[in-house]
């Protein structure tokens, strides 16, 4: 599949404040994440991806004082790749003294909200890397930002993938959230609401937590529906309501919230 590039004009990038330093070739690419919150709704609404990229550019230019967004390319959940500084331009995101060694490719996930890179985002990162190798004289290395620089970037999920050799995911369909496409029919409701307090526990809690994690929410499945599960549930209920499936914002996984956790809204 050819790379699906979003030009700077298409995402309405600001003009750089000056000239980029020329980059003839690199040892490879370093993979990044935002280090902040990424709205889980970006997985279903591509317009929010473009807005997030513009926000990153504002932060880099107005907050960091850089001449432009610091990344070479940015991959979102829709297997689309935004042009940042682009080919043969030194990035700014790898760290002082490290930018001329590697291009910088961002996967549009963060340390809260959307934290699990969907399969199509991983495909997009790899599409970007292959394009940089083909058109920008990038070498074979694929490293994380933290390799050689003291940072948590690119976060545990992306870094684990990088350490595994950055393999192509086994499926390539656009996921609805966090790597899994919602199914036509949810599993049977367990017959009891999941709530806190008191704390509900059991295999049904673990199944719901795993589904929320796979849809991009920052939640570790442990089979115990505690305060974190309740807060994730409330956020999911608000997001679902905004996307046409009205749910009570009560933090309780009842029949309607259970269904919405697996299925697409009907309107």
Topology overview:
Blueprint: E1 5-6, E2 26-32, E3 37-38, H1 46-63, E4 73-75, E5 81-83, E6 102-107, E7 112-113, H2 119-136, E8 138-144, H3 155-163, E9 200-201, H4 203-214, E10 224-225, H5 227-242, H6 255-262
Parallel strand pairs: 1-5, 2-6, 2-8, 3-7, 4-6
Antiparallel strand pairs: 4-5, 9-10
Structure in words:
The protein is of the alpha/beta class and 267 residues long. It folds into two domains: 5-163, Lysozyme-like, CATH 3.40.80.10; 200-262, PGBD-like superfamily/PGBD (Muramoyl-pentapeptide Carboxypeptidase, domain 1, Orthogonal Bundle). Helices cover 30% and strands 13% of the residues. The chain is built from six helices and ten strands; from the N terminus they run βββαββββαβαβαβαα. The protein has helices spanning 46-63, 119-136, 155-163, 203-214, 227-242, 255-262, and strands spanning 5-6, 26-32, 37-38, 73-75, 81-83, 102-107, 112-113, 138-144, 200-201, 224-225. A six-stranded mixed sheet has the order 1-5-4-6-2-8. The chain has a two-stranded parallel sheet with strand order 3-7. A hairpin with a 5-residue loop joins β4 and β5 (81-83). The chain is elongated, with a radius of gyration of 20 Å. The chain starts with a strand and ends in a 5-residue tail after the last helix. Mean pLDDT is 90; it is low at 171-181.
């Amino acid at each position: 599949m050819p790379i699906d590039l979003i030009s700077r004009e298409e995402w309405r990038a600001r003009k750089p404040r000056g000239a980029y330093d020329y980059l003839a070739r690199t040892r490879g690419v370093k993979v990044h994440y935002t280090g902040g919150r990424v709205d889980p709704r970006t997985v279903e609404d591509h317009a929010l991806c473009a807005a997030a990229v513009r926000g990153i550019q504002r932060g880099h230019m107005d907050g960091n004082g850089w001449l432009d967004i610091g990344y070479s390319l940015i991959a979102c959940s829709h297997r689309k790749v935004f042009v940042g500084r682009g080919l043969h331009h030194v990035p700014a995101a790898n760290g002082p003294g490290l930018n001329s060694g590697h291009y910088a490719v961002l996967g549009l996930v963060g340390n809260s909200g959307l934290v699990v890179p969907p399969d199509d985002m991983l495909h997009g990162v790899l599409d970007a890397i292959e394009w940089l190798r083909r058109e920008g004289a990038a070498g074979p290395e694929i490293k994380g930002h933290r390799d050689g620089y003291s940072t948590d970037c690119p976060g545990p999920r992306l870094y684990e993938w990088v350490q595994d050799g950055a393999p192509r995911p086994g499926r390539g369909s656009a996921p609805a959230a966090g790597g899994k496409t919602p199914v036509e029919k949810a599993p049977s409701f367990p017959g009891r609401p999941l709530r806190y307090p008191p704390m509900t526990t059991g295999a049904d809690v673990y199944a719901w937590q795993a589904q929320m994690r796979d849809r991009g929410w920052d939640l570790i499945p442990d089979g115990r529906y505690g305060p974190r599960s309740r807060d994730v549930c409330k956020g999911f209920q608000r997001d679902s309501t905004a996307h046409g499936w009205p749910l009570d914002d009560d933090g309780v996984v009842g029949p309607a919230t259970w269904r919405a956790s697996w299925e697409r809204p009907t309107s």
